[in-house]
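For anyone still unconvinced, we reproduce a single protein record, the chain in one-letter code, the fold tokenised, and leave readers to judge:
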Amino acid sequence: MLAAEETASRLPLVLIVDDSETAILYLRQLLQGEFKVVTASNLIEFWAQLAGEPPDLVLMDVVQKEISGFELVRQIKRTDEYRNIPVIFVTRLDSAADIEAGFEAGCHDYVTKPVMQRELKARMRAALRLKNLEQELRMRSITDYLTGAYNRRYFYEVMAGNLGYAQRMKRNLCIAMLDIDFFKKVNDQHGHEAGDAVLQHFTKTIRSQIRKYDVLARFGGEEFVIQFFDCDLQKSTELLERVQQRLLETPCEIPDGHVSYTFSAGVACLHELQSAEPIDALIEAADRRLYDAKTSGRNRIIIFDKTKVLQ
């Protein structure tokens, strides 16, 4: 999801889906200036546009040569990646049965031709406002309010899907449990505001070093968890070492100076498990190794039965 300031600084991207070049040209001219427009006149172009840069909104004719708009919307709504994109039908079909079929298929709104410019734009703006509100509410429900990292519930939700995919495709997946060393001392010596600043700094530092498709969540207190997808133990450890190095280079700034801190970690890999419940088994293995890292000196990563001290 785009940051609010980034979203506000760009025009909404609208995909027009119609097999009539005349209709596409007319709608493009109608929306010029307020929306960025891309078009698709066939199924290949349509799916290519979605795969390249998913639009904020789709305008679609019901009558298509290759497939009806009703069926195409049903396909969109069955696809997790695209189901939240609002679709507005713009069509000459104006019977009550057609309008009902459109909403049953999953469209957000239904506009009949000939199109009135002000009405269409008003409906599009309303659809985008609702989409943005839903995204905001969704983000609030899946993120930790203090750090902005994902929350524990969402982590399990993502893990279930990614784990199933990794097993089917025979890909690897690693879990790292991280805990800030001596975090209580930060709160005791500098106050809870400094402790909050460290948690936020830790989150930002981790995000700057892991990959975009890795998943970071706050598991509770000063404990975090990372899902490294399609990644082995060696690569996972390298990414964690990059986080540690970055922490050494850029300590957390607080009003009365700065706070330097380290973390301990335990890592577990899908390929090493035989359990029928790999989600719990992975987390238990990573958590057990995190405990070993804490009790054997802190500021270290443990994978399998090996200990690697971070310098």
